[in-house]
C-alpha cells in the first residue's frame, strides 16, 4: 500500500510551508499598504509579517483559517477581494480527504495575508482592525501545533516584538509629551498671528510668528530625537509621530513666511484717496501670493493627516490649527487675487471705462428693477473720474434708434428678444442673470451714443445707501434734504415718487443721486479693503450692487466676491428663483410683499423629488390717493392694481399649477440651463393678494446629501421664505429624523444654500 503521508504530488512538493512563506513575503514587498509611512521600512515589515503569518498559521486549524477569511472578506475590495476568494477556495479544497491541509493552508494564508496588504485606502479603521484580528487568530491557532524546536524561536520573536512595541510606545509617549506642549503653544501663536494678519495688525502678527517659530523649533528637536525613533518602526505609533512632525513642519513653514504674512496685513493699508497707488498694489502682490501658497500647502498637508487614525488630543490640535489656517486663507487667497487683478481694473495697462446702471425696484424687472439712469466712469492709472451721466431717456432717444443690434447671449435673445430691449433699454434687465443683461447693455451703450466700456456696474437704492456709508451724505439738486445711508433707500424707492411727481418719474432724481454719489465716491478718501468688503459684500451678495467684466479672470474675481448675480443651480442640486416682472408701468412694487413656501420630498432610495412651491403676493398699498406715476397702470385696470407676471426658474418640471385655487397652464421656457415657468399676468388689487401654487417633480444627486439653493430676486421688500424637506425611504443622517425645516419663515436676500446628509 502506498503511504500517502510520504508520497506527494508536484503541487504539494512546491507548496511546502517554508517555500510558500518566502513567496508570500516576496509578494508583500510589492503591496501598496503603508504601515509606518516609510517605504523601505514598510516593505520589510510587510514581508516579515506575511512570511511569519503564512508559516505559523498553516500549522493551525481550518476553523481559524475560515474565521480569518471571513474577517478579511468583510472589507476586501478589488484585488484584495480576488485574493480572499482564491484563499477560501483553497481552504475548501483542503477539506477533501487525502489532501495535505498544511501545504494547501500555507498557500491559502499567503493569499489571505496579502489580501490585507491590498486593501483600498478607503477601508475604514474597523475593517482593518477586524482583518488584523483574523490574522492574530490564525497565528494563535498555529503556534501550539508547531514542532517544539520551531515553537521556541517563534515565541521568542513574538515576545521580542511585543517588548519592542511596549518600549517604543513608552518612548513615543515621552517624545510626544515633550513636543506636544510646544506644538500646542506654537500652533496657538501661529493662529494668533494669522488672525492678526487678517485684522491688519502687522506688528502683532510679526511678534506671534516669532513665538511660533521658537516653539516649533523646540518641538522639532523632540520629535526628531532618539526617543521618537523606535516609534517610527511601529504601525500606528509611526503615524502619530509623523502627524506631529508634519504639523511642526507646516507650523515652521508658516512662521518662516513671516515677512509675507506681515505683508498680507499691510494689504489693509491700501487706501483710495482720490487715486489708488498702483505701485503699492503691485509691490504687495508677490508676498501675498507667496503667503497664500504657504497656507494652501499647510492646509493640504494637515488634511492628508486627518485622513488617517490619530489619537483624539492630537487630532483635536490639528483640527484647530487647520481651522485657523482655513480662516486665514479666506483672506490671503482673496487678497492675492485682488492684488493681481486690481492694477488692470484701475487702468494700469491703459484707460478703463465702466458703465454704471441705476436700477429701481419700485418697478420690477427680473434683475431687480428697470434702468432709470446711467453714468460713465473712467479710470486712468488709479485715478477715477465720472465723465458722463444722464437719464435712461438720453439713451432711448440717442443715435441709431431702431437700428441697434444685439448679438447675444443666445438664450437671452430667445427669451427676451421679443420685448425689443434694443429699443427699450430700460428693460434690458428683464433677465435675472446679470452677466447676460450687462453684456447686452455693454453692446447697446456705444450704439446709443456712449463710449465702448470694459465692464458694467449696477446699483439700486440699497446699494447706493451702502456706498453712502463710505462717502457720507450727498446733496442732490432740488431735493429737500441730503441723501444719507439711512434715508436713501426709502427716498429713492418710495418718497421721491410721492414728493417729486413727474420729475421723479422722468428719472431726474435718480440721475442726480447717481451722479452726486459717484462723484463724491471717486474724489473721497476710501477706507481699507477689509472695511470696503465688510460694507459692500452684503449688498453685493443680495444683488443690490453687481459687477460684470468680459474678461474671464476679472469675472471670476467678481464671482468670488459674490457680486456677479449669476442665475445658476449646481447640477444634481435642487433650487429655484421666483422672479417677478412689473406689467403695469407703475411704481407699485415698492408696496409689494411676497411670502414663499417650498415643501420638498426626496426619495432616499432613488433621488426622485416631488415638491410644492407656493407664492403669496400681497399688495400693501396704503392708499390709492397717490400720484398717477405710482398707482395708475397701462392696462386700464382700477387704480392701485399691481400687474405682475412671475417666472419660476428651477431644474424641476411643473406638473400642475393653480392661481387662487384655479388650475392654469404655465408657459414653459429655458434660460441658463434651467426651466423657466411663466404665469399669466396677475392682477393684485389694493390690499389684496394672489396665491400661486406649483407642484413639481425632478431628481437630485444624493451622493453628498440633498442640496438646495434659493436665489432671491432683489426686491424693495425682502421676501419671506419657508423651506421644508421630507425624506422618504430614509432619514436625515445623524438625527434619524424624516423631516427637517431649512428656513423657518425668514426674510432672505442673498443666495442661500443648504446641504442635508441623507441615509438610506
Description:
It is a single chain. This protein is of the alpha+beta class. Helix content is 47%, strand content 20%. The protein is built from 23 helices and 23 strands. The strands form five sheets. Strands 8, 11, 14, 15, 16, 18 and 22 form a seven-stranded mixed β-sheet that branches. Strand 3 and strand 4 (383-391) form a beta hairpin. Helix 8 crosses helix 13, helix 10 (237-256) packs antiparallel against helix 12 and helix 17 (461-471) packs parallel to helix 20 (508-523). The longest helix has 51 residues, at 148-198. The radius of gyration is 35 Å and the shape is elongated. The model is unreliable at 1-15 (pLDDT under 50).
Task: Describe the protein's topology.
Blueprint: H1 10-14, H2 17-29, H3 39-57, H4 62-73, H5 79-93, H6 101-117, H7 125-142, H8 148-198, H9 202-223, H10 237-256, H11 258-266, E1 272-273, H12 278-305, H13 312-345, E2 352-360, E3 370-380, E4 383-391, H14 392-396, H15 410-416, H16 434-447, E5 455-459, H17 461-471, H18 488-499, H19 502-505, H20 508-523, E6 525-526, H21 529-541, E7 545-548, H22 552-560, E8 574-582, E9 592-603, E10 608-619, H23 628-631, E11 642-650, E12 653-659, E13 662-664, E14 667-671, E15 674-678, E16 682-684, E17 689-699, E18 706-710, E19 719-728, E20 731-732, E21 739-748, E22 752-756, E23 758-759
Parallel strand pairs: 2-5, 8-18, 9-19
Antiparallel strand pairs: 1-6, 2-3, 3-4, 5-7, 8-11, 9-10, 10-17, 11-15, 11-16, 12-13, 12-17, 14-15, 18-22, 19-21, 20-23
